[in-house]
Specification:
Distance between the termini: 48 Å
CATH superfamily: Aldolase class I
CATH architecture: Alpha-Beta Barrel
Number of domains: 1
Strand content: 15-25%
CATH topology: TIM Barrel
Strand order of the largest sheet: 1-2-3-4-5-6-9-12
CATH class: Alpha Beta
Radius of gyration: 17 Å
Helix content: 25-40%
Structural class: alpha/beta
Length: 278
C-alpha cells in the first residue's frame, strides 16, 4: 500500500494555528474523499492559520442498528486514507476499536483516535500510545471533565508521543447531549491540546428511528463558544452532500459551508489568542 509511514509522527499541534480535524464521517468511496480533501486543501491555502488534519472512519462500529452501514472496512479504508495522505499531503486520522487494529492503522495514519465509548479501555489506550503516533482521545459522553485526568494518565504511562483530548458533549437525558463550557478550561489542566467536536456534539443519539439524528444548525454557535472558552481546535465532519451520507448526515456540515463557518471561528480564535498573549 502506498502512503505508509514508518517513523514516529512528529509533533503536529501548533499553538499558533487553529487545529482543524475535518472530513467525512465514514470513508464512503474515493470520489467523496478526493472532493473533501481538495476542499480542505483550499481552506488551508486561503486561511494559513489553519492546521488541517483529514478524518475518516473505515468502520462505524457503534451504529445504533445492526442494519446501519458500517463503511468500507479496514483494508479499503486504510487504502483511501493512504491515498489522501500521499496525493494531498494532509495528515490523516481514523478511529481504532480493538487492539488488533492498531498496528495496521499506525502504518498509515498520523493520528489514532480513541472513540468516546472506548476512552477508558486501558489496553486500547496503551496499544495506541506504544505506536509513537499522536493519540486523540474523545471524552466519553458519560465522563466528567476531571475524570479525563486518568485517561490522559494511561496514555502518558504508555509513553504517548503527543496527546489530544476531544470534548464531544455529555449525555443529557435520553437522546440528547449538552456541552458544558467549563469542560475546556478543566481539560486544559491536563496540559494537552483540547479540541471541540462540534458536529458530534449536536447529535441526537438513537433519535432517528434506528440511527442518530442531529441539529447541524447549532454547530456554528457551539464552535464559536468553545473557542471563546479556550478550545485549541475544532473537529468538524463535512460532506459534499450530507443528505446522502451513509453516517451522521443530519449533523455534518456541507462542504460548501465550511469556509463561512471557519471564518467566524477564526475571528473568535484570534481574539482569544491575542488576549492570552496580553
Amino acid at each position: 500500500m502506498s502512503g505508509l509511514i514508518s517513523a514516529a509522527s512528529p509533533v503536529l499541534f501548533d499553538s499558533q494555528k487553529l487545529l482543524l480535524i475535518a472530513g467525512p464521517c465514514s470513508l464512503e468511496n474515493e470520489a467523496v474523499c478526493r472532493q473533501v480533501a481538495e476542499g480542505l486543501i483550499e481552506l488551508r491555502r486561503t486561511r494559513p492559520e489553519l492546521n488541517v488534519v483529514f478524518k475518516g472512519s473505515y468502520d462505524k462500529a457503534n451504529r445504533t442498528s445492526i442494519a446501519g452501514d458500517r463503511g468500507t472496512g479496514l483494508e479499503a479504508g486504510l487504502a483511501l486514507l493512504a491515498m489522501v495522505r500521499k496525493d494531498y499531503g494532509l495528515p490523516v486520522l481514523t478511529d481504532i476499536h480493538e487492539t488488533i487494529q492498531v498496528s495496521a492503522v499506525a502504518a498509515v495514519c498520523d493520528v489514532l483516535q480513541i472513540p468516546a465509548f472506548l476512552c477508558r479501555q486501558t489496553d486500547l489506550l496503551l496499544a495506541a500510545a506504544a505506536t509513537g503516533r499522536i493519540v486523540n482521545v474523545k471524552k466519553g459522553q458519560f465522563l466528567s471533565p476531571p475524570e479525563m485526568t486518568h485517561v490522559v494518565g494511561k496514555l502518558r504511562e504508555g509513553q504517548a508521543r503527543e496527546i489530544w483530548q476531544t470534548e464531544r458533549g455529555t449525555t443529557f437525558g435520553y437522546q440528547n447531549l449538552v456541552v458544558d463550557m467549563r469542560a475546556f478550561p478543566l481539560l486544559r489542566q491536563n496540559r494537552c491540546p483540547v479540541i471541540f467536536d462540534a458536529t458530534h456534539a449536536v447529535q441526537l443519539p438513537g433519535a432517528g428511528g434506528g440511527k442518530s439524528a442531529g441539529q447541524r444548525e447549532f454547530v456554528p454557535p457551539l464552535a464559536r463558544a468553545a473557542l471563546a472558552a479556550g478550545a485549541d481546535g475544532l473537529f468538524i465532519e463535512t460532506h459534499p452532500n450530507p443528505a446522502v451520507a451513509i453516517s451522521d448526515g443530519p449533523n455534518m456540515i456541507p462542504l460548501s459551508e465550511m469556509a463561512g463557518l471557519l471564518d467566524s471561528a477564526l475571528a473568535i480564535w484570534r481574539v482569544v489568542r491575542d488576549v492570552a498573549r496580553g
